[in-house]
Design a protein that fits this description.
It is a single chain. The protein has 11 helices and 9 strands. It is of the alpha/beta class. It has 3 domains: 47 residues; 117 residues, Periplasmic binding protein-like II (D-Maltodextrin-Binding Protein, domain 2), CATH 3.40.190.10; 100 residues, Periplasmic binding protein-like II (D-Maltodextrin-Binding Protein, domain 2), CATH 3.40.190. The strands form 3 sheets. Strands 3, 4, 5, 8 and 9 form a 5-stranded antiparallel beta sheet that branches. Helix 3 packs across helix 10.
Amino acid sequence: MLIIYKHNLDSIVLRNVLRLLDEAMILKECLLCNHRLPWSLFLAFCFLFTSNINIANAQDLPPVLVAKLGSWHPYTSSNRPEYRAMEKLVQKIFKGTGIKIEFHYVPWARAKKEVLTGHADITFPWFNPKDVEKDFIVCSEPLMRFKEFFFKLSSNQEFSWESFKDLHKYRIGGTLGYSHNKVLKQNGIDVDISKTVLANFQKLELGRIDAFPENIQVAKFVLNSHYKNEKIDRFTIDPKPLVSGGLFVLLSKKKPYSIIVKEMIDERLIAIKKTPEYEEIVRPDIWGRMGQ
């Protein structure tokens, strides 16, 4: 018996249903025509078929997906609607599907844990989460591309690097919880870790570090929130990126519908990226001076 979802039938679901029908007809023809299938192949085919049925017909897609995330201005925010670029993008992805997104703001580590244990459906945005693929379903399409550059004092003309070996002679800062700390330490760099991005800019001013990595948009937000224009000009960016990759959605492996939701996100996100609205969402004109 075919079950049609209560929500708007997404092309992902339709393709799954059609694939199941094709596989069922092949199996039926093999049995009716008395084709002699090897026993191991027959068992494998039955397993694949029933697995796909579970994926396509597991449960009705839920009317609400619970998203757990933290505040990371200007991309996500618990209390500033103008700094919710990623939330707006995710809402756009699910527009017209019949699925609503509930955003719950918690510390980032807790957000990941609650999705891992099945107490939430999704969490985002996570940078190049290759190391967690065994624990989560990871979307293939990134919400956006992401780079981090070294920030330094404009008066520091000596800082320059082409390889990690060049960084050994500098005092490098980092921000607690960021993946750049792991990248630097894996390459033998001692990292002076601060709790906030603002603390790193303050360390630059005090001469306690020579440079620290950060995304340009995040750095602009911090500088425009805490510094006057003349002070912002004291800082500059080294042109070589330290890390480059994407920001992704993670889904819970505990939810039977996560595979379909993942495919839905990937397909719809690809389509959204082809529209002018995508750039308006992920790069709103709120950043201020640096780099303009």
